[in-house]
Amino acid sequence: MVEYSELSEAWEIVRTQFPLAIWETVYVTFLATLFAVIIGLPLGVLLVTGDKDGIRPLPSWLMKLINVVINLLRSVPFLIVIIVVFPLTRLIMGTAVGTAASIVPLTVASFPFIARLVESSLREVDPNVIEMAQSAGADSWQIITKVLLPESVPSLVANITIALTTILGYTATSGAIGGGGLGKIAITYGYYRYKYLIMIFAVILLIVLVQIIQSSGTRLANALDHRLRK
Amino acid sequence: MIRLVDLSKTFTSAQGTVEALKNINITIEDGDVFGIIGMSGAGKSTLIRCINMLERPTEGTVFIDDTDLSLLSKRELRRVRSQIAMVFQNFNLLMQKTALQNVCFPLEIAGAAKKDCEEKARQLLRLVGLEDKESAYPAQLSGGQQQRVAIARALATDPKVLLCDEPTSALDPNTTNSILDLIRDINNKLNITVIVITHQMSVVESICKNVAILDNGEVVEQGAVGEVFAQPKTRAARALVYPESSQESAISLEGQKLIRVVFNGGEATSEPLIATMASRHGILANIAYASTRTINGRVYGSMLLGIEEDKIEKALAFLTESDGITVQEVSDNG
């Protein structure tokens, strides 16, 4: 049975610490996703355009290398990534711990994932439409900016939504070693101090955040998709 | 003028090499509507893509007026391509752009100002009869309307040549006719040279002035549509012009011999041939099969007559004397 004193103590912690924790989780998630997209989007474009059937094929050894590196980065567990990029984090942020500092390992861990998502979005674009652009005299840059990217906007939005929810999950892990947010609260109170009520509440909030992001992302992707008759 | 000179294209893959095009020579005059017809797999798509160098020919080259396209740099080639517009079987519209934005696309590529693009695009949408659809997305348009948008788009850069790759193959017969009318109109009004790739005889019949028949990567016949269709010389041409004639081999009549009568667009059809044969010579012909078509007001086609064996000589003599037809006895029926 949960005693009243336990409940009121838990509520006190929720009331004082959760607003900041939610804010930290949200801004870390969105900033890390933004930086991961900044790196991952061009990389994803390269994976499609540099392919041997792409609009500007690159040497096959280079493409193989890029693919291997992406797969390699994607297979490293996130906890290891955090530790491995410590020096990089310190270089960029001045410190390796803290909420803001956790953006660095999150970005490193998620840009290869984003690159793959972008790749799959761009591959959905009808090759015949790309041929049309070529027949109209478009160069590679114009094909990327006026055909590939604009035509795959709904798919990109849907895929970046998936990335957001995944990265939100990662923030809980980064909370374990210095990052802030709901994940940190869940671990500090729930795991280290056996305050399960707080842990459960933090987890419920994470679930709610994922639901909100996923449903608004899906709605946005549909709203942007003109292939649907509306 | 467009000249394809000794053009060959070979595809090499792990499975071996495929000669898609063999030594093609075609000359297309300015303002012509030129049809390239062939069965699927004949090399039509490869051929039309060689004309704007989307496919590089393995040998030979393409001249547009006096420009040898195979000698151009990538940049120069892109500039020339804006003069050779293309219309596709599946329209290939940008699905996330409105009709107006789609028509603007080639102009944007060429670097025109947005305001000029839109003005020109509106004008072209009016030309293809879609002025009220400028803000519709392709998914909201019918197939025929989508092809109209694609045609308007192709005309945006005032091209000299319009390449049409199976432009009506994805459309129903009525829409096909309206799209063909539009292409004919464009050829008349704007004097754009049109090259149409198709497997549909009706397309060539209805809009083309000249035609080349492509079979297995080779041009087997070419010339004015009337001439080529009147007397298809090769097996491939006959199969295209009279697709039903492949059924002939299934026909055999007991105790009778078969005679093929080919109408060459002369006066033959104004005289009741079969009736005359019956009333004057007492030869009763059994029409086993017939397929005729009218091109430019003249009748072309073939007919397979079953005639009793003992009257066959008489029948042949009569038919051979008739004007405007050629006759041959069908031996072994195949």
Describe the structure.
The complex is a heterodimer of chains A (about 230) and B (about 325). Chain A has about 230 residues and is an all-alpha fold. Chain A is about 80% helix and about 0% strand. Chain A is built from ten helices and no strands. In chain A, helix 1 (about 5-50) packs across helix 8, helix 1 (about 5-50) runs parallel beside helix 10 and helix 8 (about 155-175) runs parallel beside helix 9. The N and C termini of chain A lie far apart (about 55 Å). The model of chain A has no long low-confidence stretch (mean pLDDT about 90). Chain B is an alpha/beta fold. Chain B is about 35% helix and about 30% strand. Chain B is built from eleven helices and 14 strands. The interface between A and B is medium-sized, with 26 and 29 residues.
